[in-house]
Amino acid sequence: MAKEKQFIIEAQKRAEIEEFLSKEFARAGYSHSEIARTPLAMRITVWAHKPGMIIGRGGKNIDALTTILKERFGIENPQLEVQEVQNPDLDPEIVAKQIAAALERGLKHKRIAHLAMQRVMDAGAAGVAIRIAGKLGGDMSRVDKFSAGYLKYSGEPAARDVRTAYASAQVKLGTIGIQVRILTKAPTERIAIEKLANPEVKVGS
Questions:
Q1: For residue 54, which of 31, 88, 77, 87 has the smallest C-alpha distance?
Q2: What's the pLDDT score for residue 205?
Q3: 81-92 average pLDDT score
Q4: Of 3.80.10.10, 3.30.300.20, 3.30.200.20, 3.40.50.1110, which CATH number belongs to 3-84?
Q5: Do the beta carbons of residue 130 and residue 98 sit within 8 Å?
Q6: Is residue 203's pLDDT more than 50?
């Protein structure tokens, strides 16, 4: 099989696994998974706010999940590891999924976005930006953007320090897309500039 075709097949399989895990463990505060092939196994690391709900009593859920990965997705010798997301309000994947779930429950998107931003900033983020697109209460599609704090949108600091996640909500009027970008800590150059401008103010503490 050509390398290009094999790459496409593996990428599709990873996307299917990610979708399955996201739905299966939504109540566990599922964030994302990392899949890495090793010489002897396929290592899958699952990140979630409540890892105990994924592991199950005595590892029962892990055993069942291992069987599903083998039989449904054709993964040979999957090695599962579950890691805890210490602060879900600083994890853009979790925040995006929470916004999507709230939209599907019929809550107003502006209220959801503002509450989400407040939680993110209260958790200690340097900045957050939320983008919600779709039919937001009307027949015409539109995009609403919300932001707070400091955030880089381009250049090396943006690529290096800003985490971005996407989610979608299925509502009566159609699909609504959600993008969440979080900068957990201001870059050192930003801190240095603000210290020069305000030497008596502690920045980034």
A1: 31
A2: 43
A3: 95
A4: 3.30.300.20
A5: no
A6: no
